[in-house]
Specification:
Helix content is 35%, strand content 24%. It is α+β, with helices and mostly antiparallel strands. Strand 6 and strand 7 form a beta hairpin. Helix 2 runs antiparallel to helix 5. The radius of gyration is 24 Å and the shape is elongated.
Length: 211
């Protein structure tokens, strides 16, 4: 899994310092970590990767493959419990980890030499913003170059007139803005985990479970 580990500094040290931690405390902390992972997954899916339209902080859900690939894992470590949030490989989209990374951290995507990136325009997009096929699927289309800019369009004629329908924007590269979801979610969950750990230990002390 490619992702981020929720910072548990203070929690692991607390658990390790207890020495001979009762099973109830250990299991309680593990359950709290699992709930945090579930919550983190929902936050990423709904707040950052499930919008109807792409914004400055979130991406729209088109096919839903990226949203479905969000995962979490709870692992036992030498000092305590680790909660990891991230992206799993997808059987439906082999490039999902690469796509997730570019959305998370931003960067530039370049077309291979001699080729262009085809960005679908409204004429070929469904109501969810997914392209109806690729450039090669439009047999009657041709390239219209923009002499003033480093770009071109794939177009076709509408009916028998001279009006053109713009299908794809063809460019050599595109810059993707970073829209982080993992670290903001981890930062949001950390205080909850600290509170949960403290509550579990308090309960154990009150009930005599630390003896």
């Amino acid at each position: 899994m490619t992702g981020v580990e929720i910072e548990t500094a203070g929690i692991d040290e607390l658990i390790a310092a207890l020495g001979g931690v009762p099973k109830a405390v250990h299991q309680g902390w593990k359950r709290a970590a699992f709930r945090a992972g579930q919550l983190g997954k929902r936050i990423i899916q709904d707040r950052y990767r499930g919008e109807k339209e792409t914004t400055d902080t979130a991406t729209a859900s088109r096919t839903g493959a990226l949203r479905r690939s969000v995962a979490f894992r709870v692992e036992e470590t030498a000092d305590g419990i680790a909660v990891k949030l991230g992206w799993m490989k997808s059987s439906e989209d082999a490039s999902i980890l690469e796509y997730a990374a570019i959305q998370e951290f931003g960067g530039q995507i370049k077309a291979p030499p001699g080729k262009a990136l085809a960005i679908p325009l409204d004429a070929v997009k469904t109501s969810r913003g997914v392209a109806r096929g690729g450039p090669r699927d439009y047999k009657d289309a041709f390239i219209l170059r923009d002499d003033d800019k480093d770009r071109a369009f794939l177009v076709r004629r509408k009916g028998k007139g001279d009006e053109l329908e713009y299908l794809f924007l063809l460019v050599g590269s595109v810059t993707i803005k970073a829209r982080p979801s993992l670290q903001p979610t981890a930062d949001e969950l950390t205080p909850n985990l600290l509170d949960a750990a403290a509550e579990i230990v308090r309960d154990a002390i009150v009930t005599g479970g630390m003896g």
